[in-house]
Amino acid sequence: MTLHPVQAYIHGAIDGSIPACKAVRLAVERQLRDLETGAGRDLHFDRAAAQHVIEFFGFLCHSKGKWAGQPFILEGWELFILWVVFGWKRADGTRRFRTVYIEVPRKNGKTTFVAGIGLYLLSADGEPGAEIYAAATKRDQAKLTWDEAREMRLKSPALSKLIQVYKSSSTLVIEKWRSKFVPLGADQDTQSGLNVHGALIDEVHEHKSRAMIDILRTAMGARRQPIQIETTTAGYDRQSVCYEHHEYSREILENTIQDDTWFTFMSYAEDGSDWTDPSVWAQVNPNYGITVNPDDLIAQRDQAKRMPSAQNTFRRFHLCQWTQQSNRWIDVALWNENAGVVDEGDLEGRLCYGGLDLSSVSDLTAWVMVFPHDDDPEALDILARFWCPEDKLTDDGNRYQAQYQVWARDGWLQTTPGSAVDYGFVKKQILEDAGRFQLIDLNIDRLFQAYGVSQELQDEGLTVYGMGQGFMSFAPLTKEFEKRLLLKKLHHGNNPILTWMADNVAVSQDPAGNLKPDKAASQGKIDGVVALLMALDRAMRREKPKRSVYEDHGLESA
């Protein structure tokens, strides 16, 4: 008996006859598991509904490239997604899944596929007055999906008769049903008054905040069976809404959590996979050899081998691996191996050195102390404190708002009233620490806002040095930091803010190969790591009898 194409895909993914990564196999296993257990959760599978959407794609044609004008032939992974998403129903007959998260490498045809889904939601989903939105960070990006849908409509006689195009407003309309399909960008002021039946959110990893996604989600309340479809490749910001959804989806696939409203299909290479191996590419690119050209990947791989800075880009776009920026500095696994145990109470009375990075008055300020071990001065226990303005916790423009709230709740982040950091609170804490610990001296950056605090601390009897922020100051520190990190001598006690910042750090390089932290190039805040290096500077100057790292680099001591 001939298997249904979806069943053939499922069997092939399980038995290995179809190249598939672990995440894809888990998605298939979830479907099989739900077929056995779904009834106990008032869920049922409607094969007719699943077949209906697949047959709808038979009305569509491609509009670009060598496939232009040819019928849209669904690949196995696309059949699987449509079959599962539109086949599952709740007890009341409405659709089970309300969020669909699709994460696959570039060039696998996501835009065309989702444009077809948008047309189905507009014209064949049985929703009167349907509002479909192709959404992205910018309207021009959102129009890529909408334009694809418009071209598909043009090449389909049946849809051309049903759907009108208003070019001036970039709107597809079915007038008799009062339904519409429009592009929507986060850069527009037209996000109020939405009544969303279908939201198609493109390249979620590019969204710097969750605002657009939340707006569309909250605009679905009046609909019977709304659906939000998110498509993306991997990103590198692990504090983003995209990574949050990636992790949530991964936990669902691994059966760690159960959410019957959330469907996910992810295809990515596991950590440790050989990024240069074409067999790995075939497993994670579902359209490998179709829309993904193996020869093109070979050329890009060979270039990345010669240009290491291109490796993360290749891995992110073509293996769908979450990486950091190409000039990432600190390996987080190595950082975590340094955690150790740091008990603030046990540090009382111990000798220490400090680094203070005041940063901007409207954002994070970092105060870090390092405590050398008596038996090994190169080994340091690290105590970090952070402040931000209280208003940052409720500022919707703060992309890290939710994380700041968690850190403040758990005591890792201190707040000062208003919209700017009150340096009086910072100074008070430093003076308290100086009395509690044996603070020998501290570095403070030479920026304008640091001058007043520096003078006030000196007036209180502390020894304060102004430290430059250029290559001359940081080159020896970055080398020493790397050495101690490799030797597991930097014990940070898993401070979550400092760990986040360590994961963010990017470094810039001068022609001589010297490194320094680069706040502009880093993915997120790095003030705590800068302050840590400043504290390390003071500790290194006091270490004896080892040869000074400053002498090694021909730099003067302060």
Keywords:
single chain, 558 residues, alpha/beta, Rossmann fold, Nucleotidyltransferase, domain 5, 2 domains, eight-stranded mixed β-sheet, seven-stranded mixed β-sheet, 20 helices, 19 strands, elongated, disordered C terminus
Describe the structure.
It is built from 20 helices and 19 strands. By secondary structure, the chain is α/β, with parallel strands linked by helices. It folds into 2 domains: 5-273, Rossmann fold (3-Layer(aba) Sandwich), CATH 3.40.50.300; 332-552, Nucleotidyltransferase, domain 5, CATH 3.30.420. Strands 5-6-7-4-8-9-3-10 form an 8-stranded mixed sheet, with helices on both faces. Strand 12 (365-372) and strand 13 (380-389) form a beta hairpin. The longest helix is centred in the first third of the chain and has 16 residues, at 22-37. The N and C termini lie far apart (83 Å). Mean pLDDT is 89; it is low at 546-558.
